[in-house]
Amino acid sequence: PNEDEIALQYGMSRGTVRKAIAELQRMGLIRKEQGRGTFVNEQKPSLSGFSLVEFDQYMKAQNRVPSTETLAFETIPVTESLSNKLELPTNADVIYIAQMRFASGLPIVYEQRYFDKSYCPDLSEDMLAEYTLHWLLVEKYQIPLVRLTHTIERSNLADDMFKRFQVTEPVPIFHVDRLSYTERKDEIVP
Predict the structure, then answer these.
(1) Alpha carbons 29 and 3: distance in angstroms, whole number
(2) 3-state secondary structure of 171
(3) pTM for this one?
(4) Which helix (H) or strand (E) holds 152?
(5) 99: which strand partners?
(6) CA 155 – CA 143 distance, rounded (Å)
(7) Which of 21, 29, 25 is nearest to 5 (CA)?
(8) Each residue of 11-60: pLDDT tens digit?
(9) CA-wise closest residue to 112 among 125, 122, 101
């Protein structure tokens, strides 16, 4: 469909549709051909068996029951390392969240997240019990997530994590260091 048809179908402005199409093009998912239209690009090869999609959706697609346990939820002063990475002033506060993610009762993902408290100062652990953090950031707090960078390394599970993952010896893991970006005052920031 053309931009006008998309705008009408989804009840949004043509400008929003143009921005979305431009973002899909920037991501390499679509291409525009002068005089012909806009086309979806072929899917690029991905890591077999590994996905960075939303956890619950990924587990349900595998017929597993997803669940999450919040292990830590606190406001802490930003460290020098986080200040640099998140481009925050040294006197800023960050929200620290640690969660264990389960697939049909089996612990498979341990997440630690840090983000600028000023984005959602009233966020609470009770909210995390009801909604995913992604949903809260995007829907409740209207924080557009516009870019993601990540580093993936294969390593072995650290000794201090054996009990958490219910194992008694080293197992191979993927360690993912992810940095999400948003748009604030027409600038893309961590």
Answers:
(1) 17
(2) coil
(3) 0.68
(4) strand 145-156
(5) 70, 111
(6) 33
(7) 21
(8) 999 999 888 888 888 777 888 888 888 888 876 544 444 445 577 777 88
(9) 101
Q: Give residue for tokens 């390394």.
A: 153
Which two tokens mark 71? 């292990």
Long-range contacts of 176-180 (CB under 8 A, 24+ apart): 176/52, 176/150, 176/151, 176/152, 177/150, 177/151, 177/153, 178/52, 178/148, 178/149, 178/150, 179/85, 179/148, 179/149, 179/150, 180/145, 180/147, 180/148
Residue whose pair of structure tokens reads 């008694």 in the numeric block: 168
Write the pLDDT tens digit of every residue in 76-102.
999 999 999 999 999 999 999 999 999
Q: 């600028």: which residue's tokens? A: 116
| DSSP strand pairing (172-184 vs 187-189) | antiparallel
Amino acid (1-letter code) at residue 180: S
Tell me which amino acid residue 127 is.
M
Structure token digits, residue 157: 């599970």
